[in-house]
């Protein structure tokens, strides 16, 4: 190698396999979107997406069980170490039920997403031929969902029924978001982390706006998420710049070294940390940076909310864990006080505002804010116990949430999902199985023993207590009791109230949704009763660097 | 014996599952009740066998029938069971009461849309989990089951209870859950302390007892308070008691019996098994606080009981007074008082069950729990009134009934160490006679009156203002309509009456089982007995 050509960084393809599979799958999916006829597109896209996710998961498991040493690759941009593999496994495992929920079209004919413009055009055409000009407002409204330009598919009739096929672009979008998440929680320098943040966020902004029903609310949520997300990205970038100024490097390990025993100005370090943390906390919906959460959770299509609530949280906390441990582990005593306040605010906001909600999705959103506060307790501990507890919590919480949103999508009124609490009254009588599943998941969120929620809380709280955060643990326990009230309220409504006469119906879920919900419920139960295997995996992992 | 113990835990849970499945089909309603009763009966037989196998020799191990399977090694948690004398008596009481309760409930009218099979399933589930709570020798397992037992009881109150059942169910759940979470903080604290002191974290009761008792007082006190809060809510001691009258009044009679008779005993059981042995220094230090609460409970419970007009709330308040006595005995630290308290836990279960059953039979006839609507029931239903008297006298600890022995032991043992508290508590006995006899007088004696008894006959308007007109043709009609106890109902009450009388004269067999455990607890607390065998009071 001559000294003039720049040295190409070594690429460890084996270690990167899961990321490459997911991002490669996403590119393939984009091509399929352009090339396949509308008729088969949905099915092929689903097949490809599921295959990609499962193959990626297998690759993670192979890597994790092979005992390969942790490496940094791509010139130190990515660290494939124990926690990264655990987080990848969690993300891909959560992606399976999420994708199944996204693909479901048994609950809402044509799927929960806005109609494909081409398919819509065809449907209009048919209708015009059959009835004459009768469409109008409805089509104009539905047209807002996507761009046109795929006229090639026109002419091949898709369905005889009046159901218009939904967008299939959701699949590449989900895969790109997933790829971004994988990189996000393995990024070993802040610049890679920032790019991954954008890669994961942009598809999510789009996905939020694609609901077939309640279009305005969905678009509003997308715009809100985008604007606030852009702000938080700016914070992150500003923080990154300050830290670069402080440490002359964007690598996490370099920041840690620079912070240990140097005479550089601390204001750059802590200013940078503060701004960086704002960006990260925003993604993790930790209060007081949570304000987007209820609106977006409510407005987005429920399956997207499920994906977001589970996977984004995992990715964001994965990054938070890495940044705290690798870059700021040496200065933990100087910044942790501030995060105490953040954790308390998050827990209290989540629990107290959750009490006042009358919409199931908003209620779960506030509950996720409270849970983010609990997770922060584990993330702040910067001990092996704290790390493994937080990882376990993320896995447990993710599956519970996905299954819960799956169930929420089943309770439907005349205009789509009936998410108002009053609609859930007497559900235990009309559909005991759905009510029982919701009850179980609510108890898991409340942290009742024999559910994964309890095991996770126990792990996090004991790690925090062992690291001297006794007051925080006490606050967390009190908050758990407060939060239990609103979980209970739903159970009370379902079981102890009489159903309303014109109440919503509960759709019989198709195979996809059934599998997704069952998976979530079973994992929630197993992690509560026999958590040993997963705890054993999470135990003893450590970050590289 | 380990296998039997495991069977005692699992059998009711299997029964609950079977009944739960049968609840989905209406034509299996009766069959489910019979199956449920069958499971309860087998449990009773198993308990009898375990009782006969339980060794009361002084050198017998602290826990018998031990069984331990590793559960979550990462936290040092095992699924560990074992019986001491106190746990055994509580499990035996449970096994005796559950079949009675199931038979009683079979004649109850259920709220619309609820099935008897579901009810049976919930009762059996509560039984299974409660056996686990009493038998657990792993603190984590205990905590898990302590929280888990809320769930069937919550549904029992919320689905099968009275008009304000939602409120009562949620209040019950939140109080207990909050207490549980405070205890969780202490449980985690114990775990962390064991990590620091023993090298690796454990939840094994024996290991923790050895470790925690050595902790400095400043560490013991917060840990003690965590456990104490949960148990004080559960047992309930006075400032934490407000959920009990609501839950007791709104739960169905069968649920109230399990709730007050056994579920609440987990609180006093917890004092004996967890707070005292694990945190002896803190227990001694904070005993005056607990004793104050206990004595307040005795007086306050009794006074409020006297003021109630709802029969079920009345029973609930009498229980608060009794829990005060039990706590007094436990925190007086003498072997007599602790043995008295342990025995009191059994006796209170029996008398409360009896009282609730009689009240339930009365409500079944009169259709209301409002005691001002009843009067002169003794004329219409002399057997019922007699049973009420037996239950009442047992509740106020008349000599010759079971409760007398335990109350006497508590007062005797406590006086040696805490004369002031004991003397005040003794006043509670007088109040007890007041509230019980007054209620008896108002509802059972005198001429027939009150809307619940006479319907629209004379005296219907108010039981208080009735004057006898001498015309008694309506009286015969009323008597026939109201009806005395049937043979079946008498048969249902007979085992309890027998227990009340037998334990009133021969408490020996139960005390024999309790004594070794009480002695072990005393030595764990590390307090010398104030009364030596030759009768010298050593302070």
Features:
heterodimer; A: 545 residues; mainly alpha; 3-stranded antiparallel beta sheet; two-stranded antiparallel ribbon; 5 strands; B: 539 residues; 23 helices; 3% strand; globular
Number of DSSP strands of chain A?
Answer: 5
Taken in chain order, the helices and strands of chain B follow as: HHEEHHHHHHHHHHHHHHHHHHHHH
- The portion of residues forming beta strands of chain A comes to under 5%
Largest sheet composition of chain B: 2 strands, antiparallel
* Shape summary of chain A: globular
The helix/strand series of chain A, from N terminus to C terminus, equals HHEEHHHHHHHHHHHHHEEHHHHEHH
Number of helices of chain B: 23
* Biggest sheet statistics of chain A: 3 strands, antiparallel
Describe this structure in words.
The complex is a heterodimer of chains A (545) and B (539). In chain A, strand 1 and strand 2 form a beta hairpin. Chain A has one domain. Chain A has helices spanning 13-35, 38-66, 82-103, 117-131, 137-143, 170-184, 190-208, 215-247, 252-259, 266-283, 292-299, 302-327, 332-355, 360-381, 384-408, 427-430, 432-446, 452-466, 470-496, 511-529, 532-538; strands spanning 71-73, 78-80, 411-413, 416-417, 505-506. In chain A, 70% of the residues lie in helices and 2% in strands. Chain B has 23 helices and 2 strands. Chain B has a domain at 294-464 and 472-539. With 539 residues, chain B is mainly alpha-helical. In chain B, 73% of the residues lie in helices and 3% in strands. The interface between A and B is medium-sized, with 36 and 34 residues.
């Amino acid at each position: 190698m001559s000294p003039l050509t720049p040295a190409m960084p070594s690429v460890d393809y084996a270690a990167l396999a899961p990321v490459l599979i997911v991002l490669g799958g996403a590119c393939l999916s984009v091509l399929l979107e352009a090339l396949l006829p509308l008729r088969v597109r949905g099915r092929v896209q689903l097949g490809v997406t599921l295959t990609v996710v499962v193959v990626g998961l297998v690759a993670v498991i192979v890597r994790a069980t092979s005992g390969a040493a942790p490496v940094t690759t791509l010139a130190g941009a990515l660290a494939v170490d124990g926690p990264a593999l655990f987080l990848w496994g969690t993300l891909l495992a959560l992606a399976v039920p999420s994708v199944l929920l996204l693909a479901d079209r048994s609950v809402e004919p044509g799927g929960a997403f806005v109609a494909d413009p081409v398919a819509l055009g065809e449907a209009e055409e048919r209708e015009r031929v059959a009835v004459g000009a009768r469409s109008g407002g409805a089509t104009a409204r539905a047209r807002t969902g996507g761009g046109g330009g795929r006229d090639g598919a026109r002419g091949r009739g898709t369905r005889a029924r009046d159901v218009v096929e939904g967008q299939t672009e959701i699949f590449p979008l989900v895969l790109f978001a997933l790829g971004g998440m994988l990189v996000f929680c393995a990024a070993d320098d802040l610049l890679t982390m920032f790019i991954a943040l954008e890669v994961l966020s942009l598809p999510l902004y789009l996905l939020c706006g694609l609901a077939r029903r309640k279009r305005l609310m969905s678009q509003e949520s997308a715009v809100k998420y985008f604007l606030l997300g852009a702000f938080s990205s700016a914070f992150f970038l500003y923080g990154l710049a300050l830290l670069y100024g402080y440490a002359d490097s964007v690598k996490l390990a370099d920041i840690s070294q620079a912070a240990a025993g140097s005479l550089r100005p601390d204001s750059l370090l802590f200013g940078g940390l503060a701004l960086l943390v704002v960006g990260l906390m925003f993604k993790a919906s930790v209060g007081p940076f949570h304000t987007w959460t209820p609106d977006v959770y409510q407005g987005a299509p429920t399956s997207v909310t499920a994906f977001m609530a589970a996977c984004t949280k995992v990715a964001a906390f994965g990054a938070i864990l890495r940044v705290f441990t690798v870059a700021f582990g040496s200065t933990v005593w100087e910044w942790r006080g501030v995060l105490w306040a953040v954790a308390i605010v998050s827990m209290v906001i989540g629990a107290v505002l959750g009490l006042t909600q009358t919409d199931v999705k908003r209620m779960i959103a506030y509950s996720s804010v409270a849970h983010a506060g609990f997770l922060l307790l584990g993330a702040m501990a910067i001990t092996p116990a704290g790390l493994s507890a937080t990882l376990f919590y993320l896995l447990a919480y993710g599956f519970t949430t996905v299954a819960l949103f799956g169930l929420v999508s089943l309770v439907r009124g005349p205009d789509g999902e009936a998410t108002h609490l009053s609609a859930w009254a007497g559900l235990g009588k009309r559909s005991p199985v759905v009510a029982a599943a919701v009850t179980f998941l609510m108890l898991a969120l409340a942290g009742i023993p024999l559910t994964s929620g309890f095991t996770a809380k126990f792990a996090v709280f004991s790690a925090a207590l062992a690291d001297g955060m006794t007051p925080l643990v006490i606050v967390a326990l009190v908050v758990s009791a407060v939060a239990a009230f609103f979980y209970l309220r739903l159970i009370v409504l379902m079981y102890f109230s009489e159903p309303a006469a014109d109440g919503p119906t509960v759709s019989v879920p198709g195979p996809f949704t059934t599998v997704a919900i069952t998976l979530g419920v079973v994992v929630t139960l197993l992690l509560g009763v026999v958590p040993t295997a997963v705890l054993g995996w999470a135990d003893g992992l450590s970050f590289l660097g | 014996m380990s296998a039997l113990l495991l069977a005692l835990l699992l059998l009711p849970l299997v029964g609950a599952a079977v009944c739960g499945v049968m609840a989905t089909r209406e034509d299996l309603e009766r069959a489910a009740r019979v199956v449920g009763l069958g499971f309860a009966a087998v449990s009773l037989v198993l308990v009898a066998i375990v009782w006969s196998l339980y060794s009361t020799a002084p050198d017998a191990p602290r826990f018998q029938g031990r069984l331990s399977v590793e559960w979550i090694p990462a936290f040092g948690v095992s699924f560990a069971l074992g019986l001491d004398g106190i746990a055994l008596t509580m499990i035996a009481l449970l096994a005796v009461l559950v079949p009675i309760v199931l038979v009683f409930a079979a004649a109850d009218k259920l709220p619309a849309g609820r099935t008897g099979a579901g009810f049976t399933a919930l009762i059996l589930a509560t039984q299974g989990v409660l056996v686990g709570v009493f038998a657990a020798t792993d603190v984590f397992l205990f905590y898990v089951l302590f929280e888990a037992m809320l769930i069937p009881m919550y549904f029992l109150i919320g689905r099968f209870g009275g008009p304000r059942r939602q409120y009562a169910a949620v209040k019950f759940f939140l109080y207990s859950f909050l207490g549980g979470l405070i205890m969780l903080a202490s449980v985690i604290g114990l775990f962390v302390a064991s990590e620091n002191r023993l090298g690796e974290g454990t939840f094994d009761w024996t290991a923790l007892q050895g470790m925690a008792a050595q902790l400095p007082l400043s560490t013991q006190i917060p840990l003690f308070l965590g456990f104490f809060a949960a148990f004080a809510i559960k047992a309930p001691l006075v400032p934490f008691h407000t959920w009990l009258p609501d839950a007791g009044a709104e739960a169905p009679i069968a649920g109230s019996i399990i709730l007050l008779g056994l579920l609440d005993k987990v609180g006093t059981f917890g004092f004996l098994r967890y707070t005292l042995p694990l945190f002896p220094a803190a227990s001694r230090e904070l005993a005056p606080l607990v004793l104050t609460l206990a004595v307040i409970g005795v007086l306050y419970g009794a006074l409020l009981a006297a003021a109630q007009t709802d029969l079920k709330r009345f029973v609930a308040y009498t229980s608060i007074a009794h829990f005060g006595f039990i706590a007094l005995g436990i925190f007086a630290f003498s072997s007599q008082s602790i043995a008295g308290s342990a025995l009191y836990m059994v006796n209170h279960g029996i008398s409360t069950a009896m009282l609730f059953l009689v009240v339930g039979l009365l409500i079944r006839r009169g259709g209301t729990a409002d005691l001002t609507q009843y009067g002169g029931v003794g004329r219409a239903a002399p057997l019922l009134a007699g049973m009420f008297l037996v239950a009442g006298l047992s509740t106020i600890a008349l000599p010759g009934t079971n409760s007398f022995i335990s109350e006497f032991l508590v007062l005797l043992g406590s006086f040696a160490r805490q004369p002031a508290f004991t003397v005040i508590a003794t006043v509670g006995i007088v109040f007890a006679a007041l509230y019980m006899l007054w209620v008896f007088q108002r509802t059972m004696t005198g001429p027939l009156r009150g809307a619940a008894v006479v319907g629209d006959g004379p005296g219907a308007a108010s039981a208080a203002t009735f004057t006898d007109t001498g015309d008694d043709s309506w009286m015969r009609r009323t008597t026939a309509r109201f009806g005395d106890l049937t043979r079946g109902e008498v048969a249902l009450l007979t085992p309890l009456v027998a227990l009340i009388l037998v334990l009133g004269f021969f408490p020996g067999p139960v005390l024999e089982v309790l004594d070794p455990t009480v002695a072990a607890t005393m030595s764990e607390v590390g307090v010398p007995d104030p009364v030596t065998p030759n009768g010298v009071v050593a302070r």
